[in-house]
Design the sequence.
């Protein structure tokens, strides 16, 4: 059973690790119907449901969640998450940032999804222990926090690896070849026919094969890849937005802006501005 809500702020901005940093963690037992959002964070924030039910909304999609479900809030994205009115959820949560944060996220199911399901009681215990220890401001708090953060992420990474192993095999070699090619040539004017020719397959057959293996169409995969590259450039450079759109492969700025807004619920300019004004969020004031 969850105790009263707990959260903490323990590392001054002067001591934050640029590579990987635990911003905050805690537990919460929500009142019926409690809603958070629309809200935007400037860090990654993971919640793991330990009791009750709730709804997580990101983009235009609602996720009905219960015990064992976890959801990810990505930096710069507008989300809403609400406890059920009859059976409100309780959860543990932890937030983190740093240049390596995306790399570690991609080693979990969150690399391709906003939600996942794990049955692991140790995560709640780990988050609770971390919260209690750090609230007492121990020596070398930053080093302890990073070590605990890695343990939390390891739970999700191990679960994801186990899921993939249970599926029995990696991606087909020809599909993996196309994905590897797109990682380096995403800015080129590539069509589905070009991808099919790369692996000497007929276009419609390649389309069905790719979607079966990856879960989305080749065109959608390429679009998401380009948008993700643009998202990075918007926050890490001061290049003009039009130049960014062109550099990742969009021929039309209006198309880029429309697709970016649909994916991240903010226009490119709003997304960039978020990171100029939301830096104060990296100090924890709780999960909200």
Sequence:
């Amino acid at each position: 059973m969850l105790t009263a809500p707990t959260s903490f702020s323990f590392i001054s901005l002067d001591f934050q690790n640029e590579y990987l940093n635990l911003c905050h963690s805690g537990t919460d037992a929500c009142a019926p119907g409690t809603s958070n959002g629309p809200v935007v964070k400037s860090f990654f924030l993971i919640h793991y449901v330990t009791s009750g039910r709730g709804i997580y909304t990101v983009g235009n999609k609602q996720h009905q969640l219960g015990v064992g479900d976890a959801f990810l809030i990505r930096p710069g994205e507008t989300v809403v998450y609400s406890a059920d009115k009859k059976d409100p959820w309780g959860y543990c949560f932890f937030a983190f940032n740093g240049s390596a944060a995306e790399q570690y996220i991609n080693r979990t199911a969150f690399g391709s999804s906003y939600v996942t399901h794990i049955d692991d009681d140790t995560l709640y215990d780990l988050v609770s222990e971390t919260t209690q220890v750090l609230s007492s401001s121990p020596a070398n708090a930053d080093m302890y926090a990073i070590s605990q953060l890695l343990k939390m992420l390891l739970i999700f990474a191990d679960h994801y690896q186990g899921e993939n192993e249970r599926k029995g095999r990696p991606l087909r070699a020809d599909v993996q070849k196309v994905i590897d090619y797109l990682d380096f040539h995403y800015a080129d004017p590539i069509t589905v026919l070009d991808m099919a020719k790369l692996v000497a397959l007929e276009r419609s057959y390649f389309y069905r094969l790719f979607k079966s293996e990856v879960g989305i169409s080749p065109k959608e995969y390429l679009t998401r890849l380009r948008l993700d590259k643009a998202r990075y450039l918007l926050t890490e450079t001061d290049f003009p937005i039009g130049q960014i759109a062109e550099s990742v492969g969009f021929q039309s700025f209006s198309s880029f802006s429309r697709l970016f807004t649909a994916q991240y619920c903010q226009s490119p300019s709003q997304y960039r501005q978020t990171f100029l004004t939301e830096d104060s969020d990296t100090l924890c004031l709780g999960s909200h």
Observations:
- Residues 190 and 267 are 25 Å apart (CA to CA).
